[in-house]
Amino acid sequence: MDDQQLADSLTTILDGRWGAVRRRLRGHDDPTQFGPPDEPMSMEEHRAHTTSQLLAITREDFARAGLTRGMGGTGDIGASVTAFEMLGHGDLSLLVKAGVQFGLFGGAIANLGTERHHTAYLPGMLDGSLLGCFAMTETGHGSNVQHLETTATHDAETDELVIHSPTPGSRKDYIGNAARDGRMAAVFAQLITADGEGHGVHCVLVPIRDEDGNPMPGVTIGDCGAKGGLPGVDNGRLAFDRVRVPRENLLDRYGSIASDGTYSSPIDSTSRRFFTMLGTLVRGRLSVAGGAGAATRSALTLATRYALHRRQFAAPGSDEELTLMSYRAHQRKLLPAIAKSYALMLAQNELVEMMHDVAVQEGEAPEDRQRELEARAAGIKAVATRHATDTIQMCREACGGAGYMADNRLTGLKADTDVFTTFEGDNTVLMQLVAKGLLTEFQESFEDNSPLAMITFASRFTASSILERTPAAGLISKLIARAPSSDEDGAERHRGRQVALFVDREKHLLEGVALRLSKAAKAEPDVAFRIFNNAQDHLIRAAEAHIDRVLLEALCAAVERCEDGPAKELLDDVTDLFAESTIEANRGWYQEHGRLTARAAKGVIRDVGELCDSLAPRARVLVDAFAIPDAWLGAPQLLEPLPESRPEPLPEPLPESRP
Amino acid sequence: MDDQQLADSLTTILDGRWGAVRRRLRGHDDPTQFGPPDEPMSMEEHRAHTTSQLLAITREDFARAGLTRGMGGTGDIGASVTAFEMLGHGDLSLLVKAGVQFGLFGGAIANLGTERHHTAYLPGMLDGSLLGCFAMTETGHGSNVQHLETTATHDAETDELVIHSPTPGSRKDYIGNAARDGRMAAVFAQLITADGEGHGVHCVLVPIRDEDGNPMPGVTIGDCGAKGGLPGVDNGRLAFDRVRVPRENLLDRYGSIASDGTYSSPIDSTSRRFFTMLGTLVRGRLSVAGGAGAATRSALTLATRYALHRRQFAAPGSDEELTLMSYRAHQRKLLPAIAKSYALMLAQNELVEMMHDVAVQEGEAPEDRQRELEARAAGIKAVATRHATDTIQMCREACGGAGYMADNRLTGLKADTDVFTTFEGDNTVLMQLVAKGLLTEFQESFEDNSPLAMITFASRFTASSILERTPAAGLISKLIARAPSSDEDGAERHRGRQVALFVDREKHLLEGVALRLSKAAKAEPDVAFRIFNNAQDHLIRAAEAHIDRVLLEALCAAVERCEDGPAKELLDDVTDLFAESTIEANRGWYQEHGRLTARAAKGVIRDVGELCDSLAPRARVLVDAFAIPDAWLGAPQLLEPLPESRPEPLPEPLPESRP
């Protein structure tokens, strides 16, 4: 099997169930349709460019695939999300703009609206004739969305909803599509019926611009201006001064106002209702994770290709300089990051399958399955975007001065993905939610992130079946059962021992957090917050340990699925590197809790070095398996070495130049 | 003592010996003279803006202060470097452009040239009538500068030097001031006498543009175009096609060609000569470290001010939302980074004093003192720029969506400082040099970073007086002597124990590396490289441990200098937080090497949490002590909370707006 065949085998494994979608896009007639502009552009030019790209991709069928047949779609949710992930190899401004239009604006209409909204607005959403915004975040409230201040008050006399921004902090902020293109916004606001009663946050469709693009009366539109990246996305601000829309504009799947002005909802609890609404938007987080993964793989491919031809300093006894990839310090930067990208891609595939299957079942999927999906998506989003920020930064540095040139794409990838750790849920907040989900075993509403909710839910923790809810449960138990019990040499690379170490860390951290928080539940309020605060770090560490385990399992399951042969062997080594480098990063914890002796911890460090050494010669195969066309990657300076000599010989005799 | 007085006391400590320079600049009539543009600009506009700022600051006296009296300066080197550091609070494009002009181009003429060069070029360098480049890096050689390919061949017939770029990889790359403004370049090239003999890399002044700004004959100038940041710096590429300059353009302090064509130098060894030349340029690294420090303090001030007014989620039993700074996860992001910034600022001050004193002694300073300065500058540069990249990124994330808005400055600070980890020496390379310097106790030339040099020099290591060469040596020994010997509770915050743990880690790592590398010295070449490569990570870890110790000592010395009172107490807590959080970060190592029990390691984690808790209410004082004027910081959205209510009451009755 030659290297290309080996890479192809790995690609098949990484591509997953919707590999056909990936292959079709890789062979797309016009790769530049998704790519960044060839020439530097002003922000306004870039915005126009991105809008025209957005309109062009409405001709692709993947946005339509994201809707069920009943809504005029084709119902192939997995294909839709996979295609969106592939956009992450192109211009991330387009990815985000498409995410706002099809995922957030379209998703709100599809998931929170009812048939009349679907009929009226989904066709325009799909064909781009109705560009829209998702107006949730306010200047004063990002993470704590349950406490948004915008109001939607029912006026019984005119049967309208009055949308209003009562304070400067209540203005909608950072809203994609708002500054330039949006005609309508899905506005999240506290719904108040004419009797003055509040029903919590609901979503209302509000026209924000007229046909000519002028703001509607009462709507003030601001421009967020330049950002750290994503220059093609027109983020803006929206403030409403008692703007009136028909009552029918309320997206009323989970709460409606009847013509007589009475409110009704299939869900009694205000907060539970709101978190159910948020839950339907899980696809956004999953898509951000996918886009982050694709951008990270682009960066790793660029930095790895560079490290394989860039030479600096000779080895003793030699005149020829060594490639950067020859150096341990460089291997240690790139190879564990590649291994983690494998794990994330496989875990993302599992997550997309899970979401597809839940979505296809529609309403029939058990509720805890939906909660579990939300938790998994939150955790993978946080870990994948953290990995993106750290890894793309590392790749920039690993390419030295060349990495800093905009032409070589790494700085753009870094700047564009930077906000991924923030939007669709701040990572720190999301990781707390993941831990809370695990503690409550998905029996409680997912999104409530207040310290009180954390404490209350955690106190009901029963340390039961952490292991049972995993796609690879059987395999994992089998692997653990085979783990060597002693601290013997070479034990560290045993798969069962690795898995046991991961599971053990997750379990111990979760139990510890539950114990601490259940004390808080019995304490006075001010003491309760203190206990919560002391446990906050443990909460986040527990969530990290959980996602680490999910990643390792995804790798183990992929190895198991492989037929015997070179691809399986290589993937097995990648799994070892992911496992050992993760254990290495947490070796302080493992020693503190008596899980590793000092000697075994040193063995893990040595082992990571040896794995890097043995994987370095396969680095090209490993990134080729990501199968990103060179035309998409750009940055020829990073991809290929300079020619050996000047392309044209210099003229003789010398041109004389005396200054 | 109120908070402002307390902050002022800390400012005096942090400002150091050249505090007067800092105070004068803080009160500068026109702060915008150094600041970023108010409006978004295209790259070309930004370049023009930066150039005009550069010309404006030639009227300040700090570039002149950087030259000795003999060269037409005032010889207050410390003042010059301190003023440069303060530019780091402004537009970093100006900082870098000024660094290229005064530090690199001016520094090359001053330190590598002789009187005729000083007379001819320094006045124009100072007043900006001669804008210049520092043309060292080539496309093919960045870190391994000893192997640059550009040639400077003496033509005995015409008594000229012929500057030539023989290969595509030999073109000068990323050169500041080259794309737009530079008239002359200090070009580093292999000097070859007419007899064909090579004498290693020397520096030659080469005019690159004529009076009208057109490239000189034989000079090809390219534009690097857009970069990840620093839009105001015109980085470019220079290729020379047998360009002729008079022999006198050789900067000949360390090597000259006589009129008869013979070469002579005060230093016999080619490589030693080159590294001596490089050593004179130490001020560049020190200035990058200073600029990085200033930018980091700006970012920390912005993120801390935001964390003190931004509220999200209520505590149990309360309706009022808590500030971000109330949360442990947020405290743990900001406070240890503030403590490290204190340590770095104090260590930077020590370094500036050291450099000032060595420079003022001129030639009389012992050679190992110069080498030590080079090692210290390399280490502080690497650690300060790593801290800048990590901390500014963290600050961006800690400000959520607001942190991503360009107006709020954090993304610009991140993008502009990003390349600091690369230029003036790649950090990974620099940290190896630091370790090598420690192993050879500064008896060998400093800059040679080849694996062979590392191995050879390390094999002569004698683990002697690691502690002796430190400004605070007496204090440190005293502190260690007082350390508790047992693993008793509360021991972790004891200063002597902290210092002992730092020193121990450095010593053990260095001895381990020396042992490994000395084996390599006796081995066959291919085995030797393998041993070196296995030790490369240890080499870098040893350097980190060294700089950690330098930082802790700088803090200890500052506490010692304080008069008893609230400022001393607060600085003492900051020192504890720096020490404990550094030990926490390395707790895996401490346990592996039997320096901390599992129980003690857990105690360190708990202690960091408690220190964060007790320092959080002082966070404002801690950043106010950086004394950065609000007008320089910009980003009012981060500095102050939004007004409580809409500034103007809404008109009644409601304006009706029916879409």
TrEMBL record, chains A, B:
Domain of life: Bacteria
Region spans: Disordered: 639-659
Stretches with biased composition (Basic and acidic residues): 643-659
Keywords tagged on the record: FAD, Fatty acid metabolism, Flavoprotein, Lipid metabolism, Oxidoreductase, Peroxisome
Residue span, Acyl-CoA oxidase C-terminal domain: 510-636
Pfam families: ACOX, ACOX_C_alpha1, Acyl-CoA_dh_M
Acyl-CoA oxidase/dehydrogenase middle domain ranges (all copies): 133-243
SUPFAM superfamilies linked: Acyl-CoA dehydrogenase C-terminal domain-like, Acyl-CoA dehydrogenase NM domain-like
Domain Acyl-CoA oxidase C-alpha1 residues, every copy: 279-439
Gene3D superfamilies documented for this protein: Acyl-CoA dehydrogenase/oxidase, N-terminal domain, Butyryl-CoA Dehydrogenase, subunit A, domain 2, Butyryl-CoA Dehydrogenase, subunit A, domain 3
EC number assigned by the record: 1.3.3.6
An MF annotation (GO) of this entry: fatty acid binding
One BP term from GO: fatty acid beta-oxidation using acyl-CoA oxidase
Subcellular location: Peroxisome
InterPro entries named among the record's database cross-references: ACOX_C_alpha1, Acyl-CoA_Oxase/DH_mid-dom, Acyl-CoA_Oxase/DH_mid-dom_sf, Acyl-CoA_oxidase, Acyl-CoA_oxidase_C, AcylCo_DH-like_C, AcylCoA_DH/ox_N_sf, AcylCoA_DH/oxidase_NM_dom_sf
Cofactor: FAD
Family to which the UniProt record says this protein belongs: Belongs to the acyl-CoA oxidase family.
Name used for this protein in its record: acyl-CoA oxidase
Organism: Knoellia remsis
Organism ancestry: Bacteria, Bacillati, Actinomycetota, Actinomycetes, Micrococcales
